[in-house]
């Protein structure tokens, strides 16, 4: 078989064959990119009416729930043994504990409400199977989300606060 035939013959390339793990990896990458697009890029601000659905909360809680539901057996145990996840949960607990003792409890509670979607995003990233392909896909999706947001802002001539 010639080299071009090997390149375009998907049956001989085991990496290109669709199996369960690659579908699971792709779902995890799509969910993480959606979470990044909403939480980091704030892509939902282009359509103001989406604010009624609270996209940050919906995407972060729903995305993590889907990832945990579709994950392999033992993923939650592996996540809870991960030192980064333990430190993140400890940090969130410390933030929750500090709210009643804050100088401005309402402001501290508001900051806590802004913090937990980001914590859920980090937990989702820790659940995603670790490979360079997944890293490339997440990074490419993030770049596309940022570029589309910037392009939409340039075309519409709008300015978003915080940028």
List the helices and strands and how they pair.
Layout: H1 3-8, H2 20-39, H3 55-70, H4 75-81, H5 83-98, H6 105-127, H7 132-156
Helix pairs in contact: 2-3, 2-6, 2-7, 3-6, 5-6
Largest sheet: none
Give the N-terminus to C-terminus distance in angstroms: 54 Å
Q: State the helical fraction.
A: 55-70%
Radius of gyration: 20 Å
Task: Kindly summarize this structure in a few lines.
By secondary structure, the chain is mostly helical.
Structure description:
There is one protein chain. This protein is mostly helical. Helix 2 packs parallel to helix 7, helix 3 runs parallel beside helix 6 and helix 5 runs antiparallel to helix 6. About 6% of the residues have low confidence.
Q: What tags apply to this protein structure?
A:
163 residues, mainly alpha
């Amino acid at each position: 078989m010639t080299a071009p035939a090997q390149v375009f013959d998907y049956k001989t390339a085991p990496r290109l064959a669709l199996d369960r793990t690659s579908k699971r990896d792709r779902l995890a990458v799509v969910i993480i990119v959606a979470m990044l697009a909403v939480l980091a890029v704030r892509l939902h601000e282009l359509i103001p009416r989406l604010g009624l659905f609270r996209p940050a909360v919906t995407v972060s809680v729903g995305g993590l729930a889907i990832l945990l539901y579709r994950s392999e057996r033992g993923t939650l145990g592996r996540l809870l043994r991960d030192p980064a996840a333990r430190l993140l949960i400890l940090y969130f607990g410390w933030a929750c504990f500090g709210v009643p003792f804050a100088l401005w409890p309402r402001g501290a509670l508001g900051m806590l409400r802004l913090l937990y979607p980001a914590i859920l995003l980090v937990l989702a990233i820790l659940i995603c199977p670790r490979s360079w392909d997944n890293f490339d896909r997440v990074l490419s999706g993030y770049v596309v989300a940022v570029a589309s947001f910037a392009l939409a802002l340039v075309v519409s001539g709008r300015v978003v606060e915080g940028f």
